[in-house]
Amino acid sequence: MSYPHSLRAVVCMALILSLSACRAPIDKLYDPGTYAAQKPLVLAEQTDPQGTEKILDRYIKSQNPDQLQQYTYRELIEQAEKAEADRLAKIEAQRKKEAEQKRVDQRYRELPGVPLKELTSEDYGLLQAETTIARQVRAQVLAKIQKQSARFKAFVWQDLQACAQGSFLSWRTCLEDWKSPAEKAALAKAKADEELREQGLKWNLNTYTDEMSGQPVKTATVKSLNTVNFDFPYAGEQRATLQVRQHPRYGLDILLSIEKGQFQCRLRDCPLVLRFDAGGMQRNDAGRPEDYSSELVFLENVSQVLGQLKRSRTLKIQATFYNEGNRLFEFNTEGLTF
């Protein structure tokens, strides 16, 4: 009468062991010690026992055995099949890459001997309407790669082929990658300068005819980088304009003007302060126009100022305006040819 609890425990343990023994082999936990004995029973339930055995063995060898014991054989087979699919996909991708590279290498093995016309018309496919530009671009690319290896040429060709899928503009964008750092820097600067020029913030050269003399008038004009805003009645953002002018009747002048407002002038002159780059301040007693208009002044010492303009990159001009006090204007003066 003193053993019912112990007997019950023994019966339960026997039942648990019997139930465990009844589990299908594939649903049992992986055990490295019994794997060899369990494997035939596990594989017997597979549609392709030999194929499953190969990928399962390969997967188990590539993993940490201690970590695998938390999985059943069913789960291990699923993981092994996924790993095998990934492995085969990588092999196929590498095979395709090598086949394409071999094809491209063969195509460009004799590149230096291929006539430019044949090469460009067959492979590059640039728009026929852009014949002049296209010929220059193709010649540049060909010159850069003819001395390289066939494999390097193949990489160039692949990039150009990708460019060819777009418009001619995309070709020009792609070809920027084949320029040297110095060429890229020069192009970037030229583009930035052109954007400034379109806004009037870079020198714009112009020539027109003086109707009275029939002779040409040459001008170089640039607007200030900064703006000012005066009080009523001259309110609103505005820039100052600096102009160098060679006139057949009036000679060489340098003019400073604003869109609206009044330069503060004395009886005969309008005092300005100039500073080129990081140099010292220079006083310039600008002259008033003959009609005494208040938006324009003529700088003095024209030849000296013009020489400084050609050598400088920036110019700051301080001027005094009626009811506004001193105002500063900064100009980009780089690249003046006049």
* Whole-number mean pLDDT: 79
Shape call: rod-shaped
Give the count of helical stretches: 11
Name the poorly predicted regions: 15-21, 110-135, 166-172
Order of neighbouring strands in the sheet with most strands: 1-2-5-6-9
Could you give a short account of the major beta sheet? 5 strands, antiparallel
- Summing up helix and strand content along with how strands pair, one would put the structural category as alpha+beta
Please report which band the strand proportion falls in: under 5%, 5-15%, 15-25%, 25-35%, 35-45% or over 45%. Answer: 15-25%
Helix-strand sequence: HHHHHHHHHHEEEEEEEEEHEE
Give me the count of strands.
Answer: 11
Spatial separation of the terminal alpha carbons: 124 Å
Helix content range of the residues, please?
A: 40-55%
Radius of gyration, in angstroms, nearest whole number:
42 Å
Describe this structure in words.
By secondary structure, this protein is α+β, with helices and mostly antiparallel strands. It has helices at about 5-20, 35-45, 50-60, 65-70, 75-105, 115-125, 130-145, 150-165, 170-175, 180-200, 300-310, and strands spanning about 205-210, 215-225, 230, 235-240, 240-245, 250-255, 270-275, 280-285, 295-300, 315-320, 325-330. Strands 1-2-5-6-9 form a 5-stranded antiparallel β-sheet, covered by helices on one side. The longest helix has about 35 residues, at about 75-105.
In short:
By secondary structure, the protein is an alpha+beta fold. The protein contains eleven helices and eleven strands. Strands 1-2-5-6-9 form a five-stranded antiparallel beta sheet, covered by helices on one side.
